[in-house]
Amino acid sequence: MHNPELARDYIARAELRLRAVDTLFDGGGWADVVRESQEVVELALKGLLRASGIEAPRLHDVSEVLLLERDRLPKLVAHDVERLAEVSKELRRDRELAFYGAEDLTPSTFYARTDALRARDGARWVVGRVVAASRE
Fold it and tell me: Residue 28: phi, psi to the nearest 5?
């Protein structure tokens, strides 16, 4: 927990991956936009936690930690914790399904543009809040 460079790396990689999400969106890869948006959010929020001196769990959804540790987060995001947690939880639900599908579900036909928009917008918002907080 004494490596501040790691927190910055997570956030920088989340920003870079947002560009990949845009490329997937432009190509109509709705399921891939959902999956990659989840990874963007996970990296950004784990960067936020680490930058705040909070050990990030080795889970894909850190919403519970955000809610429990709200007082240790930068003031700039403290009032956004519920929304940050909500985006994390929503995208986590779709993580495996968007990537692998299921016997009765093919990701490329199940996910639609509206799903991709929701996921991408959520990821953009989370990264924007985390980047702003990291500059505080």
Answer: 80, 20
pLDDT at 129: 98
The architecture that CATH gives domain 4-134 is: Up-down Bundle (1.20)
**What SS3 state is found at 102?**
strand
Torsion 65-68-72-75 (CA) sign = positive
Q: Which residues pair with 105 in a beta bridge?
A: 102
Q: Is the pTM of this model over 0.90?
A: yes
Residue 84 has pLDDT above 70, yes or no: yes
Q: For residues 17-36, b (16+ Cβ closer than 10 Å) or e, as one string?
A: bbeebeebbeeebbbbbbbb
Give first-to-last CA distance, the chain, whole Å. Answer: 20
Neighbours of 49 (CB within 10 A): 23
d(CA 126, CA 121): 9
Cα–Cα distance, 45 to 11 (Å, whole number): 8
